[in-house]
Amino acid sequence: MYKFMRISWIIYLFLCLNTGITKSQESLFSSSKIDAKSEETTNLPVLAPMGVHGANMPAKGHFVLTAMPIFENHSGWLIGTKGVSPSYVASTTPTYIPSTQNPTPFMRVVPQNVTATFENVMLAYGVSDNFSALISASVVQKQLYAQTFFGDSGGLPIGGNYIGTKGLADLITNGIYKLYDDKKHRIQASLGLGYPLSPNTETMSLFLPNATYDIERAHYAFQPGARTWDLFSGLVYAGNLNAWSWGLSYRGRFPLAANPQGWRYGDLHEFNGWLGYSIFSGITSTVRINGATQGTIRGFDPQIKGYAVPTDPNFYGGKWIEVFGGSSFEGEVIGLKAYSLEIEAGIPIYQNLNGPQIRNNWQAGAAIKYKM
Predict the structure, then answer these.
(1) How many CB atoms within 10 Å of residue 328?
(2) Which domains does the chain have, with CATH numbers?
């Protein structure tokens, strides 16, 4: 099923790009009929893909309210780029050494499937022609199925765990400044701050290798957030010519200090490159390549211990590349000028994870925007 989804998305991305090339060839034959006024209209900035933060700024004095649900799924295990089985992980992975109260020498609980839903809400305001302010909040809900293996060692499964957590993931404020804009090319920089308001001491009921249950603190990835002060920085270049649009971006997330429990996520560096084509006025299809690198968790929570593989802070972060296909629809096409809709979904094409670590399968989302 996973391979089928990967092939389906590759075909979809190819069709998006092929459609754009076909339309471009048609536009070359009809370019002599374009007058100065229509050319000026087509060179208005086109929306960047929804996955590129800080690329689309509201006009001066206007608000943009965005609701953006995002869904993702994880399953399968990697050590670096090598795929390994859950029984191999359970038989060879030692428990985390600083957690001296770990009851067994090997990890005995291995997640099989993780789904996460992020409910994001953003409000942007155009303070001036060149500066916008943005506030965003995110609530996350995570569901986990994990397999428990019998005893202190070996690869014999005896049952499963169905666990869920929910809470505030992020509250972030950003300032976005337009450094350059000539109507065809623009460069924007952003600086933001994330606030330590998310819970990070959630608990879960875990099925143990001796066939009993225990209430333990949920592992790092299953906490709604890290409860740290985070610095965000970003830079975006975006261009457009007639029906084509393109761009490059960078965004970094830097936890400034450990939380009260003694840990913080590794620094995250994220890069994007995209190409878009407006098939019709107000409807744009995009292809986006995302690459990211993140360090391991620094520090550890002495209360996050036990049998589960993700209790080891060294099994987080890595390097990955993903490809996304998406479309944006301006509401004026159907007479709803104040609204727009963006959709995007993607799959990984390369993952090199600090592991053993559960790998990403796919991500999909939508953004509904209301301009005021």
Answers:
(1) 24
(2) 2-371 (2.40.128.130)
